[in-house]
Design goal:
Layout (H helix, E strand, L loop, with lengths): L1 H18 L2 H12 L4 H31 L6 E2 L9 E4 L2 E5 L16 E5 L3 E4 L5 H11 L7 E5 L9 E5 L22 H15 L4 E2 L2 H9 L68 E7 L22 E4 L15 E4 L4 E2 L2 E2 L2 E4 L4 H4 L4
Parallel strand pairs: 6-12, 9-13
Antiparallel strand pairs: 1-2, 2-5, 3-4, 5-14, 6-7, 8-14, 9-10, 10-11
Helix pairs in contact: 1-3
Bound molecules: calcium ion.
The site of calcium ion (CA) has 8 residues, from loops.
Length: about 375
């Protein structure tokens, strides 16, 4: 009878004992015993035998429930005022980079190497939206205005596109129609750091950019194909907003660089307009390029294998990943990397955030 009634409590008590500090517990018990006389001691022993295990089981179950909250696929939001929705990813290993035989491959995508993400990692379900960024600007008064680049004809004299900067182009006015559901663009690395700093202070959690290895792990979501929906480029328009039939380059010569399908968005699309990948993440490929925290390197010869960022060298370039609404098949691939100066704002570049709950300070403090 007693065993049946208290089995659950004692199981919890046993779990608690696995991690308890026995010296501290003995000191605590000695202090309590000093409070009781002989008569009170018998009562105390009964309470210690029956009530304390139940209390400890309650505490143990709470701790267990907290662990369940990190279950892969679980979506959470750390505040209701425009905080990004986050998804817990499973831990695991993957092959980073592309093989020498992959169609469309660039030389900076190797050597292929194994990376292990052994710590709990949550990733933004979508890119940070313009509405979420606007909340940050409203609360802080931060200025991320002006000097945003676009890939376009600078004037009628040039027949092809160049990176052309415009002082009046900004995240509020990127040069095409957007509303608050679209990913924010025209933000440089300093703007991104300001945002993650604000979000961290607001939530008291260490929000940051994804490292490049975390990004590719999150984008591949367990797949090894060119894109998370497979190797067939024509299928792309079902899964991502890319340079498609509705794309309108200013140079006719560039038209042939588009995917041969229709996704029906000439510029950026509202976040999560297409199907998510196998980790439940939207727009990991296409829509807008995403900043990562790493210093750009020409190859992976010295890249960390544990998810940490590469932060060596002069760091004059940072790495963008994912491709965007104005890029074709060679650029919208899980392995594709693009070097960009950290001060540049571009009207097809945005970001998403990560949160790593880890005992490793190095991982938690990864830039930015
Ligand atoms: Ca498109």
């Amino acid at each position: 009878m007693r065993a049946g009634r208290f089995a659950w409590a004692e199981a919890g008590y046993a779990g608690f004992l696995l991690s308890v500090d026995f010296d501290a517990l003995r000191a605590f018990r000695w202090a309590i015993l000093r409070l009781f006389d002989d008569g009170g001691y018998a009562m105390f022993r009964r309470s210690l035998r029956y009530i304390l295990p139940a209390v400890l089981a309650f505490i143990f179950n709470l701790a267990h429930a907290d662990g369940e909250a990190n279950k892969p696929g679980t979506v959470f939001q750390d505040c209701t005022e425009a905080c990004p929705k986050m998804v817990w990813l499973p831990t695991g290993s993957f092959s980073m980079g592309s093989s020498a035989t992959e169609s469309g491959r660039f030389g900076n995508e190797g050597p292929v190497h194994t990376v292990t993400i052994a710590y709990p990692l949550a990733v933004g379900q979508t890119d940070v939206t313009r509405g979420e960024f606007a909340q940050f600007v409203q609360e802080t008064g931060y200025s991320a205005e002006g000097d945003c680049y676009a890939w376009e004809k600078a004037n009628t004299f040039f027949s092809t596109e160049v990176w052309n900067v415009a002082a009046d182009r900004s995240w509020r006015k990127p040069g095409y129609a957007q509303d608050d559901s679209h990913p924010v663009v025209c933000v440089n690395l300093a703007d991104v750091k300001a945002y993650t700093g604000w979000l961290s202070a607001k939530t008291k959690k260490p929000y940051r950019l994804l490292t490049e290895a975390e990004w590719e792990y999150a984008a591949r979501a367990g797949t090894t194909s060119i894109r998370y929906w497979g190797d067939d480029a024509v299928m792309t328009c079902q899964f991502a907003n890319v340079a498609d039939h509705s794309w309108q380059p200013t140079s006719v010569a560039n038209k042939e660089a588009a995917f041969n399908c229709a996704d029906n968005f000439a510029h950026s699309s509202p976040a999560a307009s297409f199907q998510p990948n196998q980790f439940g993440l939207y727009d990991m490929l296409g829509n807008v390029w995403q900043w990562t925290s790493d210093c750009y390197t020409d190859n992976y010869a010295a890249s960390p294998a544990d998810g940490k960022p590469t932060m060596s060298g002069p760091c004059t370039g940072r790495t963008l990943r994912g491709g965007s609404w104005d890029f074709g098949p060679r650029f919208v691939r899980a392995a594709r990397r693009l070097r960009t100066p950290p001060a540049f704002r571009k009207n097809q570049v945005g970001f998403r955030v990560a949160l790593a709950v880890s005992s490793s300070a190095a991982v938690s403090s990864a830039a930015p």
